[in-house]
Design brief:
This protein is of the alpha+beta class. Helices cover 32% and strands 22% of the residues. It has 5 helices and 7 strands; from the N terminus they run H-H-E-E-H-E-E-H-E-E-E-H. It is globular. InterPro entries: PspAB-like (IPR054383).
Length: 190
């Protein structure tokens, strides 16, 4: 914070770093070797839709960009019970870097077209052989990651979440404030 901002009592909001999404493929290897969790091949971006033709056109352009050829991943847009839109990309579980590129493109397109205020998070789900799942969540406004591991309708496995945080702390910018670890109940892929 600069002197002028300190005198006015204002600070600049922390800028996110969407390029941190490109760190997820290496973190996926760490998760697989240390904890037995592998990416399931899907990922999603959660945002609040805006009214109007400009937003509808931007969303359609994003879907068309990702779904541009026959070998492209499947893209589905849905709404949850809280009024948020989920753009879900289903692809090859072994192509985590391609998935992260698609998620980055969605975030960037919405941001560049003036809809950054509606972006909430991006998520890459992981699962192990025992059927446990968690989502590696990127908080757009914070520029940090956390793990969300639902185990039931309104319960979560905090041991898995904290284990992922501790394991990936050197590879990813992990969210230090546990109160920001949003519960993404009924998120696609979980």
């Amino acid at each position: 914070m600069g002197l002028w901002e300190a005198m006015r009592g204002r600070s600049q909001p922390k800028r996110n770093d969407l390029d941190a999404l490109f760190l997820v493929p290496s973190a996926a290897i760490t998760l697989q070797t240390a904890l037995g969790f592998e990416p399931i091949g899907s990922g999603s971006v959660c945002y609040r839709s805006a009214a109007g033709a400009a937003f509808a056109q931007t969303q359609q352009d994003v879907v068309s960009l990702i779904d541009s050829d026959a070998e492209a991943p499947k893209v589905v847009v849905s709404q949850d019970g809280f009024g948020f839109t989920w753009l879900v990309v289903d692809g090859d579980p072994s192509d985590t870097s391609g998935l992260c590129t698609d998620l980055h493109a969605v975030n960037t397109s919405l941001e560049l077209n003036g809809f950054a205020g509606g972006l909430l998070c991006s998520m890459v789900p992981f699962a192990n052989g025992a059927g446990q799942k968690f989502g590696l969540v990127y908080l757009y406004k914070q520029g940090t990651f956390y793990a969300f591991a639902p185990t039931g309708e309104q319960t979560r496995d905090t041991l898995v979440e904290l284990s992922v945080r501790d394991l990936l702390g050197q590879e990813l910018p992990m969210e230090p404030d546990l109160q920001r670890w949003l519960a993404l109940w009924n998120a696609p892929g979980l």
